[in-house]
Amino acid sequence: MNQAECPICGSQISFQSLLEENELLNCESCNNKLVVKNIIGNNITLEEAPHIEEDWGQ
Fold it and tell me: Among candidates 23, 12, 55, 11, which has minimal Cα distance to 3?
């Protein structure tokens, strides 16, 4: 089982399944959306997922 720290609230998040970079997750403690930024061995780096913005180009 792998673990990572939520970059927003600092709680430990456990993962039982295989993760891929750019996968979206929810922190169960603070309910914020996170994205898997980097995976190196058992080290998983998470960051806050970008907010959905209106597409101004249309």
Answer: 12
22-58 per-position pLDDT tens digit: 999 999 999 999 999 999 988 899 999 988 766 655 5
Spatial distance between the Cα atoms of 12 and 1, rounded to a whole number of angstroms: 12
Closest CA to 29 of 47, 56, 11: 11
CATH of domain 2-48: 2.20.28.160
Q: Which two tokens stand for residue 23?
A: 């996968």
In eight-state DSSP terms, residue 17 is S
* Cα 36 to Cα 27: distance, rounded to the nearest angstrom: 12
- Sign of the alpha-carbon torsion through 20, 24, 27, 33: positive
